[in-house]
Amino acid sequence: MKAGKRDVASNDTRIHTSNRTSRGPGQILHWNFFIGGHLSASVPVRLVERTAAGQLVWMETGTPMWRTALPFGTTHLRDIAPHERPAEGYPVVADRWPMGNALFYQPTGAAHSVLWLFGRRQKFRGWYVNLERRVHHGDDIDIADHELDINVTPDRTWQWKDEQSFADKTGHPAYWTAEEAVAIRTEGDTVARLAEAGTFPFDGSWCDFRPPSAWTTPPRPPNPPRSLL
After folding, report:
1. Minimal CA–CA distance to 113: which of 101, 104, 125, 103?
2. How remote is the C-alpha of 1 from its chain's centroid?
3. Which residues are CB-contacts of 132 (< 8 A; sequence separation ≥ 6)?
């Protein structure tokens, strides 16, 4: 992995190295995405590379996954207020990852990940910065989403995403305090500066990534180990 400028880390982001396996590229991990403490999706991904600086994982469109079974008429978990959700979390149903292919860079100790987004014929479409708190439990990568994100085009023009939703959730006990919101936005500002400077991961590396032809689509894993963070 090409080393770049170190990103500002959140105190809440940590990696339990004692639980990490020694397997290498191609290892199947589980990306578990939580919103307001409740599981939204669990998708198997493949490890591309792991160094002291962080790791790269590959998520393939159409991968068998688990998603939250939402009430009728609701399109996304983030639209349901935490006090309206079942205390034990929602059940999950089998599905397939509907978004495009993506390569995730998860810097060690940082409160964000950076995605290379790919379209048809693996054409690079730009980067997506997901602000998050990330905790590793063995093969499980638990993501507590911070709502506020950044879109970065191939020419490195960038813009914030979901600013109003981020503001609306700030101060709610299931999300983040006003003080934490400042730290989250500062994390985003730091990554945006990397994009402006063309520094890794926005330096053009990995934009032509192709997964090894021997990699098959990961199977749907057993039920996620937890529905609540």
Report:
1. 104
2. 18
3. 111, 112, 113, 143, 144, 145, 146
